Amino acid sequence: MNNRDLQATWKYHDGTKHSYWSIRNNPHFLDWANRPQPFKIYPKIEPLPLPRDMPQTGVAALSAISEPVPSAGDDSVPDLQDLARILYFSAGITKQRAHPGGDIYFRAAACTGALYEIELYVVSGDLAGLDAGVYHFNPADVSLRLLRKGDFRRNLAQAAAMEPAVTHAPATIICTGTYWRNAWKYQARTYRHFGWDNGTLLANMLAVSAASGLPAEIVLGFVDGEVNRLLDLDTRREVSLCLVPIGRTSESSLPALRDAPALGLETIPLSEREVEYPGMLEMHDASSLHSEEEVAQWRGKQTVFPSSAPAVEAVHLHPLPEEEQPKDTIEQVILRRGSTRAFDKTASITLDQLSTILYSATRGLPADFLEPPGTQLNDLYLIVHSVQGLKLGAYFFQRERNTLELLKEGKFRAEAYHLGLEQELPADACVDIFFLADLKSILERYGNRGYRAVQLEAGAIGGRMYLAAYTQRLGATGLTFFDDDVINFFSPHARGKSAIFLLAIGKPLKRKPQQGL
Ligand SMILES: Cc1cc2nc3c(=O)[nH]c(=O)nc-3n(C[C@H](O)[C@H](O)[C@H](O)COP(=O)(O)O)c2cc1C
């Protein structure tokens, strides 16, 4: 398979679109008896418990989300407490709820179906409190498990074609996706979910790293086979999705390359039976990079896309000035975040609140595929149901100008209900934010790996929106959608684009207290 064989992405993307008919004709049901384990467990490796009493960063959530990564001038090296903070607030358990199918352990970042298919690993040099090694993070017992002893950072840097952030990082977190854990419910669409669910987690990870004074960025260019081998992954089941170098040392102090033989480490099977969806393995294969040269070439692409001409009517956005922004810390906001299960359709939000969400979530992700920094692959389209100061209707967010352009005026709650897979949530929210992308241009530029990039970017921006909404004590939820109907709704403006992601924002419905006896 070849990253330039773009048919592979179109086959996967078109083959996993939702439509009114595809939903009704799918005989799939949830086999609760075969529900996958939510954690990856290595039964024969001793846990190294992480500290649980990490000092709070004290950094306000909105600045953690949107302010530029700290200057890379000085050395900033994480210690074990920093790592524990970053891992916990990215993937740790924040709530537990009983469910007839078994307890559900909710995590720091939103995830489709609460299935948590993203695993985290750490490749580090010697840090205060942690010896150099390759580790797996288990949120169930908040522990690391040592998979390989020693400093393997050169292996990783080489796999990333000596990308500067990885080369200078004291530690790098690797995010992987486990197919079956999510495909149990979502079947072949899971490959899209890898990007979404990894993205929401990255929004937390980048914010908490920034709040800890540590630069971090998303690195999507790496030789897949090398990284998978380093983590000893069974790639029919689990694959590396991205690297996140954490911290920086000014001089590159990489050790020599080390041998990384297969380990064949035992892990507990997720379910009695697993179903493989070949379309996802093909999509992954077709978007894999095979050599350092290919990685270096891939990374050299520029992300500039022509902005479209402004529509007739545009509203300027005014994010809350800093002194009026809520001061809750990033940790407090992550702990109280949760997807809204019912919105109050009689409520409204203010234009300042919406502006603050749009502005702080779209200030540019630090990512190797966004060059120059600050560019963005996804375009944002909105259906406004109830935002004070805005006419009801459909809008395009003009990011560079920080304006909302009115595409069509009207009451579109019924349309939103339909577009969001006939769910009440998008109909009752105050605003629905649709992520659309010019997939054709993206694939031409990045090959099939552009598909990973655009999904991941959407998830990360969506994750930032979740945090910006909860900072302001609003509610939010990710949603899925009928692909082609979304494009038709926003056309002619959106003609030729593809639907990537959807997030609804509003005020949670306050449930009436139960009458006591
Ligand atoms: C990309 C994405 C899509 C989602 N789609 C839906 C959806 O279509 N319907 C729904 O009720 N919840 C949806 N959710 C919410 C998840 O079910 C929720 O994140 C998960 O149960 C974990 O709960 P929490 O977000 O409260 O921590 C989605 C979440 C994400 C991140």
Can you describe what's shown?
The protein is of the alpha+beta class and 517 residues long. Helices cover 32% and strands 19% of the residues. The strands form 4 sheets. It has a 7-stranded antiparallel β-sheet with strand order 9-14-13-11-15-17-16, with helices on both faces. Strands 1-6-5-4-7-8 form a 6-stranded antiparallel β-sheet. It has a two-stranded antiparallel ribbon with strand order 2-3. Helix 4 packs antiparallel against helix 8, helix 7 (179-186) crosses helix 8 (190-211) and helix 13 runs antiparallel to helix 17 (449-471). Bound molecules: flavin mononucleotide (FMN).
Q: What's the Cα radius of gyration?
A: 22 Å
| Helical percentage | 25-40%
Low-confidence stretches: none
Distance between the termini: 66 Å
**What's the total count of β strands?**
17
Main sheet specs = 7 strands, antiparallel
Inertia-based shape: globular
Bound molecules: flavin mononucleotide
User: Numbering strands along the chain, what is their spatial order in the largest sheet?
Assistant: 9-14-13-11-15-17-16
Mean of pLDDT? 95
Beta-strand portion reads 15-25%
Structural class assignment: alpha+beta
Q: So how many helices?
A: 18
